[in-house]
Design goal:
The protein has 319 residues and is α/β, with parallel strands linked by helices. The protein has two domains: 8-115, Orthogonal Bundle (Arc Repressor Mutant, subunit A); 120-316, 3-Layer(aba) Sandwich (D-Maltodextrin-Binding Protein, domain 2), CATH 3.40.190.290. Helix content is 46%, strand content 20%. It is built from 14 helices and 13 strands. The chain has helices spanning 8-14, 23-26, 30-42, 45-52, 56-70, 86-117, 126-131, 133-143, 156-164, 211-216, 227-236, 249-257, 271-275, 306-316, and strands at 75-78, 81-84, 119-124, 148-153, 170-173, 182-196, 209-210, 220-222, 244-246, 263-266, 280-282, 284-285, 290-298. Strands 3, 4, 5, 6, 10, 11 and 13 form a seven-stranded mixed β-sheet that branches. A two-stranded antiparallel sheet has the order 1-2. Strand 8, helix 11 (227-236) and strand 9 form a beta-alpha-beta unit. Helix 3 packs across helix 6 (86-117), helix 4 (45-52) crosses helix 5 and helix 8 (133-143) packs across helix 14 (306-316). The longest helix has 32 residues, at 86-117. The protein is rod-shaped, with a radius of gyration of 33 Å. InterPro entries: LysR_HTH_N, LysR_subst-bd, WH-like_DNA-bd_sf, WH_DNA-bd_sf.
C-alpha cells in the first residue's frame, strides 16, 4: 500500500516537538513577528531593521531563527531587496492578527494600570493617620496630582481586616507584631510616653514611676486592638482596668489634658501639648515602650503604582 505524500515543510516544523509541548516553544515571539510585518511593508530587511531600531545582521539572524523554528522559508533576499515567499505571505497574514491581538491586550492592560493608578486606598492606625500620613500624602500629591486618595483610620486590627478584605491597597500599623496574612516593612520608630496634666500628683514626682505601679494604675487607654494598647500591655505584663477607654489618640489626649487621669501616648502625638505645658511626661523605669512603625500589605501582593510610590516616600524619611 502506498503511503500518502506528506508536506515536507510541516514535517520539518513539527520535528522533535510533541503535540503537547508549550505553545511558546512553537510560535515566534512578538518581536520576530513585528519584524516580518515590517519586511512585508517596506520590502527591505535593512529598512525593517532601521524602523525597529536593530542592526541589519540582528534582523537577518532573527528571520533565519524564525524560519528554522517554523521549518519554512519566509523571505527571499536579493541585491534588489527582500520579498516574502508564498509561505512567508501566509505567515505574515497570521502574524498580523497576532500582533493586532497583542496590541489590544496591551491597551487593555494599560487601561487596568490607569484605573489602578487613578486611586489609592490607605488604611492606617490612628497615630500614623493623624501625625504622619498627612505629610506623606501631600508629597504624594505633588508627584501624582491625578490620584484620588481615600484614607480609613482605625486601630491595627481594623487595618488588617481592610487589607485582607481587599478594601485597601496599603496599610500602616504600629503594634508589636505583623497581623497574620500580611507582609510588612519597618518605616520608622516610635516611643510611648506617660503623660499627665500638670496638676496630677505624678507631675511632681522626683523619681521615675515603677513599671509595676503604672501597670496597677487605671489609665486613660485606647481600645483593645490598638497598637498603643498592645505595646503597653506587653511591656507591663498586663494592665489594670481602664479608667476610660477611647477609640482615638486625640480623645485620649484631650482627656489627659482635662485632668481626667494619666495616659500613655505616642511621643508623636504630644509634642505641642508638652511644649505648651498642657501635659507633662512622667519617666518610667523597667518598661520598654519603644515600637516599630510598619507598612503592611497582603502577603504576596507587593504594593504597585501609587501605593508603591507612597511606600517609597515613607521610607525615604525613615530615621
Amino acid at each position: 500500500m502506498t503511503r500518502p505524500e506528506t508536506n515536507r515543510g510541516g514535517d520539518e516544523a513539527g520535528a522533535g516537538r510533541p503535540p503537547g509541548s508549550p505553545l511558546a516553544h512553537r510560535v515566534p515571539d512578538l518581536g520576530a513577528l513585528e519584524l516580518l510585518l515590517a519586511v512585508a511593508r517596506l520590502g527591505s530587511l535593512g529598512g525593517a531593521a532601521r524602523e525597529l531600531g536593530i542592526t541589519q545582521p540582528a534582523a537577518s539572524s532573527r528571520i533565519r531563527s524564525m524560519e528554522r523554528q517554523l521549518g519554512v522559508a519566509l523571505v527571499d533576499r536579493s541585491p534588489r531587496g527582500s520579498r516574502l515567499t508564498d509561505a512567508g505571505a501566509l505567515v505574515t497574514d497570521w502574524a498580523r492578527r497576532i500582533v493586532e491581538a497583542a496590541e489590544a491586550f496591551d491597551a487593555g492592560a494599560q487601561a487596568l494600570r490607569d484605573r489602578r493608578d487613578s486611586r489609592l486606598r490607605v488604611a492606617a492606625s490612628m497615630t500614623i493617620a493623624e501625625y504622619l500620613l498627612p505629610g506623606w500624602l501631600i508629597a504624594l500629591r505633588a508627584r501624582r496630582p491625578d490620584t484620588a486618595v481615600s484614607l480609613l483610620a482605625g486601630n491595627s486590627a481594623v487595618v488588617a481586616e481592610r487589607l485582607l478584605a481587599g478594601e485597601a491597597d496599603l496599610g500602616f500599623v504600629e503594634g508589636l507584631s505583623v497581623p497574620s496574612g500580611l507582609d510588612s516593612v519597618v518605616i520608622g520608630h516610635d516611643h510611648l510616653v506617660v503623660v499627665t496634666a500638670p496638676a496630677h500628683p505624678w507631675a511632681r514626682r522626683r523619681r521615675p514611676l515603677a513599671a509595676a505601679e503604672l501597670a496597677a494604675t487605671p489609665l486613660i487607654l485606647r481600645e483593645k486592638g490598638s497598637g498603643t494598647r498592645q505595646v503597653l500591655d506587653a511591656a507591663l505584663g498586663g494592665l489594670a482596668r481602664p479608667l476610660i477607654e477611647l477609640s482615638s489618640t486625640t480623645a485620649v489626649k484631650a482627656s489627659a489634658v482635662s485632668g481626667a487621669g494619666p495616659a500613655v501616648l505616642s511621643e508623636l502625638a504630644v509634642g505641642e501639648e508638652l511644649s505648651l505645658r498642657r501635659l507633662v511626661t512622667v519617666p518610667v523605669d523597667g518598661a520598654a515602650l519603644g515600637r516599630d512603625l510598619r507598612a503592611v500589605w497582603p502577603t504576596g501582593h507587593r504594593p504597585a503604582g501609587p501605593a508603591r510610590e507612597l511606600l517609597s516616600l515613607t521610607r525615604s524619611g525613615r530615621s
